[in-house]
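Posting for a labmate who doesn't have an account.
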Amino acid sequence: MFTITVLPNPSGTRTLALSGSVGADSVAEIDRLIRDVRHARSQVVLDMGEVTLMDRAAVRFFARQQKRGVAIVNCPGYIAHWISQETTPHESPK
């Protein structure tokens, strides 16, 4: 099960607190919320402290968001590693 909570911060940023299993079916909703926050001219922070599992489509989505300046905090180590693998150029095997 996946849930998302939008938390305003006094600093003007908006935190999207994600929890549960994040999959391809969740990406559209997260993307919409990110666009809404950016439209309001606020900075987006994704809090992944309660994320338990993530599929490859979601990992790729978050890698793209990170490249666009979306901050990711409290991310479990194994998920952060997966995201970093998507943002690091891969060497072709020889």
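Reply:
Got it, the structure tokens are right above this. The chain has one domain: 2-87.
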